[in-house]
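Form P-L/3: holo structure prediction, ligand acetyl coenzyme *A.
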Amino acid sequence: MTESLGVNDTFPRGGRRLSDPAVNAVTGELVGRKAYLVGTGHCVPDRVLTNKDLEQIVDTSDEWITTRTGIKERRITNDQTSTSDLAIVAVEEALEMAGWGPKDVDCMIVATVTPDYIFPSTAAIVSDKLGMNNIPAYDFEAGCSGFIYGLIQAKCFIGSGMLDRVVVLGAECLTKITNWEDRTTCVLFGDGAGAAAIGPEGPGGELGGWHWGSDGSLGDLLELPAGGSRKPASKETVKANEHTLRMKGNETFKYAVRAMRDSCLKALDMDGTPKSEVDLLVPHQANYRIIDATARALELRPEQVYVNIDKYGNTSAASIPMALDEAVRKGEVTPPKNVVLAAFGAGLTWAGMLLKWKEEEGL
Ligand code: ACO
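OUTPUT (holo model):
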């Protein structure tokens, strides 16, 4: 196992904890604003693909998929629908909950490994279609950890005073890069989008301590081999099915368990919040066994873990914002609540963040 995975113990900015305020050396004033999650939304396509349906496509069984992963069904897009179509609906819902109009948004960030195009960015397409004000809009790719990476960026923008209102999205059409002849991967993935509106004022969930990291030496565990500048699209790459996802699932599994656990614990440590004060875990939904191991590391009871992998499978960067939106709308985030997010994915990447809903600070 690579030394760096999940063990970069030093805090950013020289070991400063979040509870230590930064002070402007000249004026003596406190620097840095808080950032709050004030709206969420999500969208999945209507079409359901069950484990039973998959039994007709590859040599698998509902029993194998359920016991190994916890997945019962997933949603899949049709030929006419792309990532931006799902993203637009998710953003509309998040804006409505936040009470913002499209022209209130200062920046849109989309985490995705399945953008509509390599360029233009899905973020630019979404912000244009929603009538936003020529705002900065960009995609970035951090695998399944992308949504938390996006929250960390939004926290920096808002905390520094650079921007006021940021929309962070995780949006994916993974079934468009699925090899439907490979039973080891095609049973795992689904499509969906989730969005969060982040601003400088509550009420809402304060973006607290975080942890993020990557280890590129393990990149070949989970990859899309062709279509980039290393191996451009050609007749040969199409014939070899190299425009579809490949994963060494078993090896990925053991890193996932450790990285998810360490990301949570380090985010809590940075925040100065003990794990005994965590109320809810909203994990990346890759495999129920990975979720269960993360919950046990935090000593959480099953009802303190939000799980929807049975309905949607692994939707990569979209999985946490989709689950978070469901939890919020079901009333599972009624304040006071400390909610931990944890993710792990292609790169390899990993990330964790604590969201803190204080008393009187519902969404
Ligand atoms: N149906 C039936 N049998 C299957 C299937 C299937 N769909 N897939 C694999 N098998 C077989 C294998 O061929 C193997 O058979 P063998 O023993 O005869 O060779 C057996 O089942 C066991 O295979 P394993 O790969 O060891 O199964 P495992 O228990 O590890 O489960 C899984 C596989 C579900 C993929 C698991 O390893 C996993 O969840 N890995 C982590 C995934 C993850 O976290 N990915 C990161 C995020 S994704 C992203 O970033 C886009």
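COMMENT: The chain has one domain: 32-363.
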